[in-house]
Each structure stands twice: as structure tokens, then as C-alpha cells.
Amino acid sequence: MERQADFAKCIKGSTGDWEVVVGLEIHAQVASRAKLFSGASAEFGGAPNTHVSLVDAAMPGMLPVINRFCVEQAVRSGLGLKAEINLKSVFDRKNYFYPDLPQGYQISQYKSPIVGEGEVLIDMADGEAVTIGIERLHLEQDAGKSVHDQHPTSSYVDLNRSGVALMEIVSRPDIRSAEEARAYVSKVRAILRYLGTCDGNMEEGSMRADVNVSVRHPGDDLGTRCEIKNVNSIRFIGQAIEHEARRQIDIIEDGGVIDQETRLFDPRKGETRSMRSKEEAHDYRYFPDPDLLPLEFDQAFVDEIAGSLPELPDARKQRFIDDYSLSPYDAGVLVSDRASAQYFETAAKGRDAKVAANWVMGELFGLLNRADVEIETSPISAEHLGELIDLISDGTISGRIAKDVFEIMAETGSAPGSIVDERGLRQVSDTGEIERIVDEIVSANPDQAAQVAERPKAIGWFVGQIMKATQGKANPQVVNELLKKRLGMS
Ligand code: MN
């Protein structure tokens, strides 16, 4: 069923509200060491044309041989997308000429893909949950790369990517805003990374999206769409949709019509521009590849893969809510990346989970952001963060000192316990010593003390003075109690 128009998500125009309709085709590279139909390396990088077999170079007489591992990864991904798995699928030739495509066709799947309909649940920032339909997932080969900037008059071709296995994941046109598109791509990426079927590295091109955008007044039929090709970052996908929707609205409101065309997104200008129009559109002349038999497997093959699936983000989120009493928002943030979820669980084990979640999402994520490092290479291990939380909860250090210890841990990689010992940061909970300092400061400041009698909130000034005198090491709870007693407030 089609989604009802949500006016809050519409764009205002001079002729009323406009609904943006988006469908995405995500190309995700299978995390496989070898290519889809040859044994050549699928590794990123490498000197040009060093990862090319005779099959990838399309030498006459060479025959493709399907890589079983890639088939397993496609099935695994399909199951993660809650999709139907087709026990029989067909590889087709998609014919077109391009210098980086030595065969003169791409081996893809057309009418019979390996994976059919599925769905992905996305959580929006306002708490709304939206289901995006998946139309299909099919296996296909990647093309090579033309290189135009190495020589003044010649172009080169690098076939390292030629034949690398891709999963093309096609969504239904269920997405209604740039924000939803970003959430959808992030979620698909998270699912594939949990499954281990694609590394999701968009900078290296392991994931990229073709973005189909059209606009309409709510309730109208679908408008003419434009396809923005090969957008390679989640942020750019959002920007491309925003720009493209606005462009189409302006054309229609000026009395024009939208040409169905393929466009490119220019990240430097933040705009899309025409690449080719429908008149030049390809007729691919798909037909079943005679070099490959239909791909057939039995239900037992699928069941075995289903039995080996890890806990996926949705299930993990629910478990974090149930077992750790986290808010849906916090749970969602923590599970959005498998490594973050793992880190949190290690740090929270046997401790106050809410406190652990705050440390991970606040201090730790802040640190990783500033240092521009991934959680996998965090300078502070989950075990050490857990120990730091223990030092706060057993009263060894105050929460304020803990932030300093955290910074030192980040710089040195040392365990929090040894930092506290070496630097003498233990919290002073010794009532006698704090009492002496309280007395000293209250006696020295009679005017301030008189103010507290009129305005109890003024006690904060004394707390500050005492913390300063103890270099932040006094137990704040003890300080408060003793101060109130000394000032006759309790
Ligand atoms: Mn494709």
C-alpha cells in the first residue's frame, strides 16, 4: 500500500505543498576476496590492471564461473533485509558499449533476481518508525574505470574493478524526504555490516547509490523522475535530493515539464546537472547469458545460512531497551554500528547501563570525533572505560575528576586505576579533613555566609570554593552535607 502524504514532510511552493518521492538503488560490493566470476583479487587499490584475470579482460573463449561465496553473501543479505529468497534465478547480459567494459555487456540479473521483496525499518529522529519496501536484490559485475587525467591526449583504462561482485538493492519509491533517504541508507549499511556481507566503506566505493527523485502534489500520480547516478556519501545523497526536488518544483511552477533524464551530483556546487536524456537512454537488450546456467539451490542451503545470521540491529535495539532499560533513542544510536554496540556491552557489563551509555555516547563519541578515529581503534578500551565507571560508583573519584582521568587515558592509554594512584586523584571522603576546610572557608567569608541565610542557592559559591581548595578531590556529597550543617541549614 502506498504511504499517505505527510504534510509535515512536504516542501512549500507557490502552487501549494509538494511531496518528494524517492527510490534508491544501492550498489553494495560483496565482501569477497575474489571476483564474481573469476579468481582475481577484489581488493581495493593495487597498481592499475594487476587484479585482472583473462575472464575480467574478456579474452575470447574465456568462460565465467560463479563464485559460491558471493552467492551465499547475497542470500545472507536478502535474509537480513527480511526478503524472499528465490531458489532459482537467472544471469542476464546487459548490453552496452563503454571503454571500461571489455565484454561489451555486464552480467547482471534482470527478470529473475536472486532475492525478491523485503523491507527495512527506519527510525526517524522524532521517534517515527517508517517501513521502506525492498523490491529486489540482484547480483551483478562491476565495470572497470576510465582514467582521463594521466595523459594530455590519451585516456587509460584500469580493469581492477572489472568483474567485482556487486549486490544491487532496489527500494520501492517509499522514501519521502532527504532525511528518510539518509536514514534508509544508514540502516541498509548497518545491516550489511552486521552481516559482514559488505564493508560499507563509501569512500572506497564499496557502497554507492543511484537516487531516483520525483515530486507531486499530495494525492496526485507519480511525477516524472530523474535519476542521480553514483552518489557516494550519505550526506551527498541528502543534498542531492534536496537540490533536485527544489529544481523540479521550480520548473513545474514556472510552467515547464520535467524531462526524464540521468543526472550527476556535483558535491562542490551542491547541485545536480544533466548527464544524458531519455532520448539517449540505452536499450540494453537483456538476454540470459548463455555461458551460465540458471542459478539454483535448495531450501536447505538457505536454511543453513539463516541459521548462521548474527543478531541484527532491530533485535539488538529491542534487547538494549529490555535488558538495559535504555531509551529507544539511546539504544538506536548504540546499535547503529556493530562495533559501538559491542563496545557498549563490554563497558556496561555488570554496571549501571545508563551511566555506561552516557559515557560512550558523550565523552567517548566526542573523543573519537575530535581525533577522527573509528571505535575499533579507540585509544580507550571498553574494559578501561568500565573500570573508570567503577571508580566513580565506588566513590574512589568524583565525576568531575573522572573527566580528567578520561582525558589522560586517551593520551596515555593507561588504566584508570593506575592514573588515579600515580597522580593522587583519589576523592577525599574523609569527613574530618573536609570539615576543617569547610570551617576555614566559612569563617573567612562571613558576608557570603550571611547571604546564604537569605538565599539558600548561594551555597553553590561555597561548594565551588571548597572544590577549588581540594583541587576537585572532595566528595561533593560530603561537602554539601557538611556545609549545610556548618551554615545551620540542616
Ligand atoms: Mn546496477
Q: In terms of topology, how is this protein built?
A:
Elements: E1 11-13, E2 16-29, H1 68-80, E3 88-89, E4 92-95, E5 105-108, E6 118-123, E7 129-141, E8 145-147, E9 156-158, E10 165-171, H2 178-195, E11 207-216, E12 226-231, H3 234-253, E13 261-266, E14 271-277, E15 287-288, E16 295-296, H4 299-306, H5 313-324, H6 328-335, H7 338-348, H8 353-371, H9 382-393, H10 399-412, H11 416-422, H12 431-444, H13 446-454, H14 459-469, H15 476-486
Parallel strand pairs: 12-13
Antiparallel strand pairs: 1-2, 2-10, 2-11, 3-16, 4-5, 4-15, 6-7, 7-10, 8-9, 11-12, 13-14
Helix pairs in contact: 2-3, 5-6, 7-8, 7-9, 9-10, 12-14, 12-15, 14-15
The protein binds manganese (II) ion.
Residues 27, 140, 168 line the site of manganese (II) ion (MN).
Report on this structure.
The protein is α+β, with helices and mostly antiparallel strands and 490 residues long. It folds into 3 domains: 7-305, no CATH class; 313-422, no CATH class; 431-486, Arc Repressor Mutant, subunit A (Orthogonal Bundle), CATH 1.10.10. Helix content is 38%, strand content 19%. The chain is built from 15 helices and 16 strands. The chain has helices spanning 68-80, 178-195, 234-253, 299-306, 313-324, 328-335, 338-348, 353-371, 382-393, 399-412, 416-422, 431-444, 446-454, 459-469, 476-486, and strands at residues 11-13, 16-29, 88-89, 92-95, 105-108, 118-123, 129-141, 145-147, 156-158, 165-171, 207-216, 226-231, 261-266, 271-277, 287-288, 295-296. The strands form 4 sheets. Strands 1, 2, 6, 7, 10, 11, 12, 13 and 14 form a 9-stranded mixed beta sheet that branches. A hairpin with an 8-residue loop joins β8 and β9. The chain is elongated, with a radius of gyration of 30 Å. The chain starts with 10 loop residues before the first strand and ends with a helix. The mean pLDDT is 94. The structure holds manganese (II) ion. Residues 27, 140, 168 line the site of manganese (II) ion (MN).
